[in-house]
Here is the input.
Amino acid sequence: MNKTKAVRVLCAALVLAVIALPIFLYGGTDASETQESAVLKVGSSGSQVKTLQTKLNNWGYDTGTVDGIFGSKTQAAVKRFQQKNGLVVDGIVGAKTAAALGMTLSSSSSSNSSYSSQDVYLLAKCIHAEARGEPYMGQVAVGAVVLNRVKSSSFPNTISGVIYQPYAFTAVIDGQMNLEPNQTAYNAARDAMNGWDPTNGCIYYYNPATATSSWIWSRKVMITIGKHKFAI
Amino acid sequence: MDSNTLKERMSVKKIVLYALIAAVALLAIAVITLGVLLGSVTDDRNGLAVNRENAYLSSYYTLTDSLLQIENNLGKMRVVRTPALQSELLTKTAIDAEVAEQCLTALSVAGADMQGTVKFCNQVGDYSLYLLRKLDGDESLSETDYSTLSKLYEATYSLGVKLNSLSDKISSGEYSFADFGKKDDEFASIASDIADGAIEYPALIYDGPFSDGLEDPDPVALEGEEIDENEGKEILKNTYLTDYENASVSFQGELDGVLQCYSYTFRSGKASGNALLSKKGGKLVMLDVNDTVSSPAFTKEQGVELAVQYCKKTGLVGMKAVWSCVTDSELYVNLCYEQDGIIFYPDMVKIKVSLETGKITGYEGREYLYNHTERDGDYVVAVTEEEALAVGYGEMTVESVRLAVIPLNAGGERLTYEVYGTVDGYGFFVYVDAATGQDVRVLQVIDSDEGELLM
Here is the structure.
C-alpha cells in the first residue's frame, strides 16, 4: 500500500514537473533578460531616452519634443513601433525592442576591465580563441600574424578588419572568439602590439593536423611553433 | 487468487495508468511547447531573413556606387595634370576604395575566392595614398604611374560592367540575396573574377609600405661570421641571459627569411622564455618571457635604467630611452640610438622589464638590426630651431624641441625637428623637416590605462 502511494506521489510530481518546465524555461529567460540589461520606460530620462526619441521621430513615430524624458507620448510611440515590428506591445524598451531600434542599452556600471585599448582586447580574444593551448611564443606569433596582415596589401588595414574578415580565422567562425581571454593572451597581445614578432613577418599559420585547405600547404613555412606552422 | 494478489494486481494497473497519464501529459506539453517555440522561431526567421536581405542589398548598392566613383576618379586622372586636382581625385579614390572593401567583406561567402577583389580594392586605395604622398612631396607623377592608373581604371570598369548586369537582374527580381552563399552564386562568381585572372590588373610595385614585391632590406647592423647553433647557445647564456642564473637553453629550430635566426627556449627556476639569435654575428633579435608580476619592487625610473644598462652590457652604444609604459607592473621601454645630439628613431630596440624582479623579460631588436649604422653626420639643416618654431602650431603650447631622424613610410629617413607641446593637456609631437621647414608628421600622445602610447 505504501509502495502504491509513493508511486502515485512520484507520478504526480512528474506530471507537475513536466507542466512547470516550460514555464520555468520562459520565466527564466525573461528574468535573465531584465537582469542583464537596463530598461527604458515611463519615468526614465537621460541621453538614452533622447537617442530613443530621436530614432523614433526619424522613423515617423511622433514622440513630441526630443527632451530626454520618457513620458506618455514617447510610450505611445514605442507601442506603435513595437506593434509594427511584431514585438510584445508593452511600451517598455527592453533588450529586444532596443535591438530592433538599433540601440544598445547600457546599465550604469561601465566595464571593469583595466585594458582600455579596444585593439589589445580584440587581439587578446583572437589569440585566446586561436592558440590558447599553444606555448607563449606561439601565442605572440598568432598576434604578430594578425598585425602583419594589417600591414600587408592583401588584407584589411585595421586589426578589427583583419580579425573579422570572413573565413579568415576559424575561431571567429565557430564562435570561440567570444570567449574571455586570459592573462597570458593579454600579455601575448601586448607583446605583439609593441612589435614582438617571433615569425619574421609571416601572414599565415596553420595546424598541419587539422588544416583543410590544400592551398595553405603551398605557402613557404618560416618556422614551426607548437602545433602551428607559420608561413608567408 | 487471494485478496493480496488481487490488491497487488490492482496497484500494478494503477501504476500503469498513472504512467500512461504522465506520458500523455508529457507528450501533449512537448507538442504545445514545440509549437509555441516553432511559431516564434518562424516569426524571428522571417524578420531575420528580411533584415539579412536588406543588409546585403545595402552593401551591394554601396559597393557598386563606390566602384563607379573609383572608375570616375581614375578616368578623370587620365586627363588631369594639375597637382591640386589630382590630389583631390586620389583622396576620393582612397576613400571609395576603403568603402568598397568594407562592402565586399560584408558580402563574403564561404567557398568563393573573393580575396583577390578585396586585395584589389585595398591596393587601389594604398596606391592612391602612395601617389598622394608623392604629390605632397612636390614630386610629379611619372609615365609609369599614369599607365598603372589607366590599367586600374580598366580593371574597375570591367568589374563595374559585370556588376551592372547583376544589378539589372536584381531590379527585375531574377536575382535575390536570399540564396546568397550557394556555390554557383552569381555575385560570388563575379567577385572571384580578379582572383581567377578573368579581370586583369597590374602587379603594383611601388615603394609604399603596402607594396607587392618589395623585398625586406638587408639588416645593415649585422656584422661578423655566421655562428652555429651551439655557439648561439653559449652567446645567449653568457651575454643576453645574464639575468637568468644557470639557464638551461635548448635549440628549437631555424627561422628563415632575410634575417635568418636560430630559435631557442630557455628555463631558469620558475621562469621560461624564448629567444631568437641572428645566424650572422649571433646578435639577439628577440627575447620574450611570459611573466605575471604581482608585487612591483622597482619604480618605473629604475626599470628604465635597467633597460639602458642592458643595452650597454650587450654592446649597444649610445642608446637613450625615448618612451615607456607600465602595464600590470611590466615596463615596456623604447630606446633609440643617439648621435651628435640627434635621436635616430629607425635605430630602435624595445625592452620589457619586470618591475617585480628587475629582470629583462623581453627584447625586440629587429628595427635596430635593419637600420643601425654610425651616421656620417652629413645632414642638411637649412632651417634653424627658431625658424621651425616660427611656423606656428595652432592651439599647441610648445614645450620642447630637439632634432630627430624619423623613418619615412615610403622608405628612407629624414632629419626633423621634433616639436613637443600640449593642447588642453593632450600631448602632441609635430615633426618638421629640417631641410624645408614643412611638417612631415603629427603624432598624438594618448593617455590610456596602459601608460603613454604614441600614435
About this structure: Residues 38-108 of chain A form a domain with the Muramoyl-pentapeptide Carboxypeptidase; domain 1 fold (CATH 1.10.101.10). Chain A touches chain B through 54 residues (CB under 8 Å). The first strand of chain A starts at residue 204 and ends at 206.
